[in-house]
Amino acid sequence: MAGRSTETRRGALPTARGSTRRGPGSAVGVEWNPRVVGALVGVILLAAAAWGLLRAVDAQRPKGTDTEQIMHMLAEGEAAAERRDSATICRFISDDYTDSVGFTSNAVKYNIRGYLRDRKNLDLTIPREQIHAQFDPGGKTGSVGFMLRENSSGGGSQQYPITLKLAKEPVRYFLVFPGEEWRVTSAEGYVGFTD
Fold first, then answer.
1. In the chain, what is the straight-line distance between the N-terminal and C-terminal CA atoms, in Å?
2. Which DSSP symbol is given to 15?
3. What fold does the segment set 66-194 form as a domain?
4. Nearest by Cα to 132 from 69, 67, 64, 63
5. Is 52 helix (H, G, I), strand (E, B) or coil?
């Protein structure tokens, strides 16, 4: 072994083949470039923000089958009415809404706000077993019928057979991400309920 030195120079690390290595990246004298570190941190933060945004968009998208989405919409509307939250109810009304009374989207939203504002006590029930949803071929339109029960403070109740026509309409989440949600395009049977 006359030509090979087994001694390693000071500050150099042996490699697998016995040669030595020095400079950036070696265990001795590691130097971090602030620009590289900053860029790496920036990429990590950007990836985390994108992942968080995608999760937030996904959380807003409707879940379940079309029937489950309609059931959720009705339950959310019932709860919103009882807490007098007209904004949540009006969010379910299509801009293309029309009905046999002659109401458009703006008129029905105005009436919803007035009805909720004028009621002292409001106790509504939509029995789940009485909800019947039907969807047209293609799954973009449909209808749902149910009995709406208004319970009075005196213990009595009134029932109103309500029929809603529905359409799946395009929506945007955070103004960028496309999606579809069910909206009410027409309602029948509510006139006696609002008197």
1. 107
2. -
3. Nuclear Transport Factor 2; Chain: A, (3.10.450)
4. 67
5. helix
Count, residues in the chain: 195
List, in sequence order, every beta strand (DSSP E) within the chain: 13-14, 20-21, 123-125, 132-135, 141-151, 157-173, 177-188
Whether the CA torsion 22, 28, 32, 33 is positive or negative: it is: negative
Q: Is 127 helix (H, G, I), strand (E, B) or coil?
A: coil
Instruction: Work out the average pLDDT over 15-44.
Output: 66
> Distance between CA atoms of 177 and 170, rounded to whole angstroms?
10
Q: How far is CA 4 from the centre of its chain?
A: 69
Q: Which residues contact 65 (CB under 8 A, 6 or more apart)?
A: none
In order of 31, 51, 179, the CA distances from 58 in angstroms are 42, 11, 10
Domain boundaries, the chain: 29-60, 66-194
pLDDT per position as a tens digit, 71-109 = 999 999 999 988 889 999 999 999 999 999 899 999 999
Q: What is the pLDDT of residues 132-150, one digit of tens each?
A: 999 999 889 999 999 998 8
Eight-state DSSP code of residue 168: E
